[in-house]
Please model this.
Amino acid sequence: MELLQRSRRLRGSEVLRRMVRETRADASSLIYPMFVVEGSNVKEEISSMPGQYRWSLDRFPEKLEELAEAGVSSYMLFGIPAVKDEVASGAYAEDGIVQRAVRLAKERYPELYCITDVCLCEYTSHGHCGMLKGQEVDNDPSVELLARTALSHAQAGADMVAPSDMMDGRVLAIREALDGADFTTVPIMAYSVKYASGFYGPFREAADSAPAFGDRRAYQMDVHNRREAIKKALQDIDQGADIVMVKPAMSFLDLVREVHDVVDVPVAAYSVSGEYAMVKAAAAQGWIDEERIVGEMASSAFRAGAHIYLTYYAELVAKLIDEGVVG
Ligand code: PBG
Model:
């Protein structure tokens, strides 16, 4: 055959494939999400997320040590308080679970970058992400508490805050609260494009945060929407977001690309609990090759335009990057 273009010519060896690779990753892009809980000597496996644990503060440094050894230098904290109430008191308490975890982590592992998830759902007795007025989540009073929560995280020493609640106006309120207390250098990574997704199921078990009634569709985004994603990302940047996130990752890679193309800030993609659980479940059955799938998911997020990738598989992805399987 007379063919001037033979695509296979550049696929002939590993050296060549890596030479012409279009997407390159670095472990510094990875953020590991993790759960801290009250109590002592707790390392409790989350049943729907095998290999992921709830850590009490006395054991939490073990995980930080593992991350440091694996070359994962950033993590994001979720807190599970002992007591939940209507006004999410534990979210902004000075001695709340996350606030104490941050203080401990920054004392023991100051070189690891500490990000806190800012939301109320783990702290409210009803499991919604804000304050209730009747059966509705009341936006503006919720925003006040979210800003208070973010500020308390910064006061504890958090390097970055990440609001995941999806209330309107929360990024601006958080920026003002931080700046008002001289935390002008603490960045905000906004969960700007966060869909009302079935993929958060295992997380809600992990954080014991499933809403007691209804669902989150009145504040998280409708999965059918695309233009709204762009609007939300731009709006949050206008309000002071330093990084915008698209979540979940795998089922919204089109939005990772679209957001990437219109914004001038870094874009994060969050491979959520349901993605992790699906891979674990299928791998446990021997139906898929876990490492290959995890590598492919990570590569697809980076290829779609993510600069930052949040994943419960952060340590494995770091290893795959090191081996050249990813990036
Ligand atoms: C809190 C929050 C959730 C997740 C991140 N922050 C749960 C939710 O919105 O219901 C999901 C993360 C995951 O599924 O891994 N609002």
Observations:
- The CA atoms of residues 143 and 169 lie 7 Å apart.
